[in-house]
Amino acid sequence: MARGATLSFLAGYVDTLGFIVLHGLFTAHVTGNFVLLGREVVAPGNDVLLKLLAFPAFVAGVAAVRALVRRRQRAGDDALRSAHLLQAALMLAAAAGSLAGSAADMASGLLCAAAMGTQNGYGKLLLAKLPASTVMTGNVTQLVVDTLDRAGGAQRPALATLGGGVLAFAAGCVAGALASPWGMGGGLLPAVALLAGLAALPRPAGSEADNPAL
Q1: 78 with 203: CB under 8 angstroms?
Q2: Which spans in 127-182 are helix H?
Q3: Which phi and psi (to 5°) does residue 92 adopt?
Q4: Mean pLDDT of the chain
Q5: Which CATH code fits 2-206?
Q6: pLDDT digit string, tens, across residues 22-76
Q7: In angstroms, what CA-CA distances link 146 with 131, 157, 163?
Q8: Cα torsion through 141, 56, 26, 132, rounded to 10
Q9: What is the pLDDT of residues 101-132, one digit of tens each?
């Protein structure tokens, strides 16, 4: 549960930070960028290129972590730790690029999109038993359904996990907004530190990370 809540916090943090600093770019999921691209049809802006490139960057992150996970599993190594470290490296590169100046903001945004693609990828591959950490629509829907079912007498043991993830994501959004005055460079450093801490944790017992056949 702690790992899932931390990842949800990270997603909310990075998504909000990028949205503010990078003029409306969603880095943690592609749905919002599709909406913004649709808006460009009727209200063209000067930041459409970044939103167009964010999708292949996100896909590249998913593809990269899939290849890494498969390689680590074949070798019998801890795939989840390696996935966390890959995401941390991408975010650190994004922070370093942003510190180089505003001209590097596009590269920083694309690296962030790739990093969040990585989180989405290993979430599906290795942490499928946990609620999604980057998109809260499904989690909130399930939380409402389970809460109503529990009020009717049904047992719903995942309520705490779902609720904790939603609250952690919301807290991350607030923290990302508060960090935005430091820009992508300074703002990403706490997120990188959190990811490094996750990489040091043992993999969760009973997770898909324990199944090398995936």
Answers
A1: yes
A2: 137-151, 159-179
A3: -65, -40
A4: 84
A5: 1.20.1250
A6: 888 888 877 777 787 787 777 776 667 777 888 899 999 999 999 999 999 999 9
A7: 13, 9, 11
A8: 30
A9: 666 778 888 999 999 999 999 999 999 888 88
